[in-house]
Specification:
single chain; Nucleotidyltransferase, domain 5; binds 5'-O-[(R)-(carboxyoxy)(hydroxy)phosphoryl]adenosine; binds zinc ion
């Protein structure tokens, strides 16, 4: 089976074609970075309009690079939420239109589930599929969660952020330092020459019970650190040292929270498992190295999709669509886009978490 996947939930217009044997036949990602850059973040109305303008062309390119026509498809998948609702509507309506015109199954994919299942598409280092169950650290611009992935559509959330997502903390800290948007890749690049011991930054939640996260205090301390520097433009050295100090603090928080999660995961699934990381922040090579070492210390295999499949893309949506089609079949064309769509509907909302729960 071959599935077309469409992703429009944030600031990437993306489409990809993926086959059931895990081959990615095409993967087109059109970033709207330039449109949002002057505002230092994603403007929902600008994003929605840009998706309307770009989506047809991106889908056409994905189909032609895959060398197939709509009639070859086994299904059409689109991100149905959570995300910026104007953008989600564009992707969902496009997928429904293709599905209706070509009489193909339509699948509405949960964006978080698409991130969560990406490691099963990319596989292990030796090329095998990653098997259920696994422990997932999902770290993106909108979410920071620890989940036990039991199977397609079956998630147990054991931790979440009580305030900012980690990608948001990267982006907001980068903005304070005068770096561009999105901040994650810029902070990672600047941190490479930095002294990660120069600035004392907090490690929020470290040492506490449970698997929840908090990052707003870290961002606040970045602001205070910058305010305490001598007046005038920041030096490259100051920025590199602050980026390195920030990244190290973030890594140490992730390690602490993941260590607790590994314990909880082992109690729940004693037989098998792996630690998997996904979402845009998982593209960060420094954090991946630290998590690789953590998993090894706990005797768990570690899997991370390649960086280009960590940030938003259509291949992860096509793959999740494929897995869903195999497991529970198509969705109705009456499906309504969902601005909120938790992976674990039974998880209690985290205190103060607002939309990020
Ligand atoms: O998964 P994603 O593309 O979109 C959401 O679903 O949110 O994640 C975007 C987030 C942004 O906050 C971005 O700064 C962060 O992922 N990010 C990174 C890196 N690349 C992207 N954060 C740290 N290091 C990176 N290399
Ligand atoms: Zn995402």
């Amino acid at each position: 089976m071959i599935v077309l996947g469409i992703e429009t939930s944030c600031d990437e217009t993306a489409a990809a074609v993926v086959a059931a044997d895990r081959r990615i036949l095409s993967n087109i990602v059109l970033s709207q970075l330039e449109a949002h850059e002057p505002y230092g973040g994603v403007v929902p109305e600008i994003a929605a309009r840009a998706h309307v303008e770009a989506v047809d062309g991106v889908v056409a390119q994905a189909m032609s690079e895959a060398g197939i026509t709509f009639s070859d498809l086994g299904g059409v998948a689109a991100t149905g939420g959570p995300g910026l609702i104007g953008g989600v509507m564009v992707g969902v309506m496009t997928a429904k239109a293709i599905a209706l015109a070509e009489a193909k199954p339509f699948v509405a994919v949960n964006h978080l589930e698409a991130h969560a299942l990406t490691a099963r598409l990319s596989g292990t280092a030796s090329g095998e599929a990653v098997a259920f169950p696994y422990l997932l650290l999902l770290v993106s611009g909108g979410h920071c969660q620890l989940l036990i992935v039991e199977g397609v559509g079956s998630y147990r959330r054991i931790g979440t952020t009580v305030d900012d997502a980690l990608g948001e903390a990267f982006d907001k800290s980068a903005k304070l330092m005068g770096l561009g948007y999105p901040g994650g890749p810029q902070v990672e690049a600047r941190a490479r020459d930095g002294d990660d011991g120069r600035f004392p930054l907090p490690r929020p939640m470290r040492g506490r019970d449970g698997c929840d996260f908090s990052f707003s205090g870290l961002k606040t301390k970045v602001r205070q650190t910058l305010e305490a520097l001598p007046p005038g433009p920041f030096s490259d050295r100051d920025i590199a040292d602050l980026c390195a100090s920030f990244q190290r603090a973030a890594a140490e928080v992730l390690e602490d929270r993941c260590a607790n999660a590994i314990e909880a995961f082992r109690a729940h699934c004693p037989e098998a498992g792996a630690l998997v990381v996904a979402g845009g922040v998982a593209a960060n090579a420094y954090l991946r190295d630290r998590l690789t070492a953590l998993a090894a210390a706990h005797g768990l295999p570690f899997h991370a999709p390649p960086a280009y499949l960590c940030t938003d893309n259509g291949a992860m949506v096509a793959w999740a669509g494929l897995e869903q089609l195999r497991r529970r079949g198509a969705d109705k064309l009456e499906f309504k886009p969902r601005p909120r769509w938790p992976l674990d509907p039974n998880a209690p909302p985290a205190a103060f978490a607002g939309v990020k729960a």
